[in-house]
Amino acid sequence: MQQNIYAGFSHLRKMMPEDALNLPFEEIIGYLETLYGSRVYQAFDFNQAIEGPATQFQDTKWLRSANTVGINVRTIGNFWNIVPYAMTLPNAFNAIHILPIWEPGVVASLYGPSSWNINPEFFSPTLQSYFPGLDTVEKQLKVVINILHLMEKSVGMDVVPHTDRYSEMVLANPAFFEWLQRDELRILQQGNELYRTVESIIYTHLLNNSSRQSLPDQETFFRQLSENERLNILFGEKYDYAGRLRRRKEMVQLLYEQGYETVPATMGPPYRGIEPDPRPEAQVTDEEGRIWRDYRITNPQAFSRVFGPLARYRLYWSKDDNRNWELDFDQPNIAAWEYVAHQYRAIKTEFGFDFMRGDMSHVQMRPDGVPPQPVPYYDLLGFVKEDMLRDYPSFGYFAESFLAPPGEMAYGDECDHLEASLADSTLGDLQSEPMGTEKFVRDFAQYRKWLETRKFAPNFTLITADKDDPRFDTFYLDGNEIRYFMALFLTDMPAYMGLGFECRDPHPTPAPNEHYSKLYVFQMPEGPKGTQGPYVWGKNRGLYNKISRQKILAEEIFSLIKDQPVQWLLAPDPSGERRVIAWTQAEQPAFVFVANMNPKTGYSALDIQFPEGNWQLCFSTEKEAVEAGLFSGILPVVEAGEGLVWRFT
After folding, report:
1. Which of 46, 81, 203, 483 has the most CB atoms at less than 10 Å from its CB?
2. Share in percent of the chain as helix, strand, coil (round to 5)
3. Predicted TM-score (pTM) of this structure
4. Cα–Cα dist 84/20, whole Å
5. Is residue 360 part of a domain?
6. Residues 506, 372 share a domain
């Protein structure tokens, strides 16, 4: 049975996350040892695996009601610091999503991995000083996941369907990526077979520079050697970080001089058909003096985007040698699909991840929309999940998809796409609207309908790494307490919260960049996304105190309501006009929850039909003490943005 991590440590209930991260290492170990005894030291053995709570299930439905916290490790410094931060979370937040963990490429973006190696910047010298055997970042990640499993947290990794444009994956496997040859503003070639020219350039470079006595022939090198053998020949030993980077840059320079680039990843219809952007501001000079051009979609639609530093895996061959940028969906590049699935399966197996967060899950590139019947090699993220399920039946798939209208961010209906790609839950877009607006309430009502009628579950999302950015400050000026309340107590709906939401300062005007977790997805020392120094935690003690009271309530009652279906007493209003909702548990009503989603206006004299029995008010998000009277049939007042809880007596 899950132990109460707050039991005996009452001061943790109100400890700000930043303070928890600053606790002495010995004190954190003491807490864990008191809670879990000798199993803690078993968890510190990187040769052992502590199974997570998801392994008790034989399918992935558990993810449809999981409450997840997303953690950008750069904001907290290293993998170990996930542990004290997780100690501030209530048991109801039972899943941790760790943002991408691999060595990054251009602008050090976490979402542009340059290799399959774990990012060494996430290594903790402190952890090694106490446990000398934990001398690599891989061992430390394994141990942290073990400890999170002890804490009954499932742990998720990103599955990213692209890499840095000249990643080690790209240079070791040119056939798994799409290529073009550019001369200034002209694309000279974009055909299916360009990868063979790229292979020849790389292989000739090896012949001229390798210290080995002999090399296999080019075809054997790229088709028959294992990738580990190929990587070792191309770049050197795994922990020779400087040497690997130097050798990779040499190959990048050779390809650059001859104009060979990976075709950049795109987002939004029509996806295909690109050209160099001729605007002066659409070029970048890197530290070696190389000039790179941004690309643009030739016939763009509203959500068309081109991500120049990223290369998507080549999943299909093109029609007519790519003369018209048309993909042939009947000709999958099967080796690339199997390669990606194999790599992520190996990572799951090595570290013990419980679910995947699929990056850019909204991408659906078939102009005819989602096929009415399942087809082989439909979606890479679904393919990875399906491959995992062969050995790990509880391995879930959380999709980064925003439930946009059909044809807007993807061809066809996004809901159909999520079902076809085997998604268990999806991020949704409730975080992109101020709390309690008419649109927010309408969208929430629609999400509840999809929750009841679709095979995937939309999340009640509070904030994400993408939204903790100065552009979105107006979304979070108020209403944050009721967002958290709904995320905690809508027990049949998953929730997602990015780290830092619980103490985020209101920013009526933009704060310095160091206050936004989104800007730590990159490492840019200057410019509009530049940061100087570490992430600055919010100091919003008022918000955090109110949320801490909710956490304490959840610790007391969550075992009584966990995973129970909701019975609406006042259902979400599809028109968006009424902002108050009320619900209880469908099977054994023990608590009634009321939420006023309007952070600016209170309501009075609400007629709500409680289940039969005596109901006593026991909690308010806005008042530390409540008059514990029995419910009389009419709610006299619900304050702006207030959440209320009644207990059956």
Report:
1. 483
2. 35, 20, 45
3. 0.97
4. 6
5. yes
6. yes
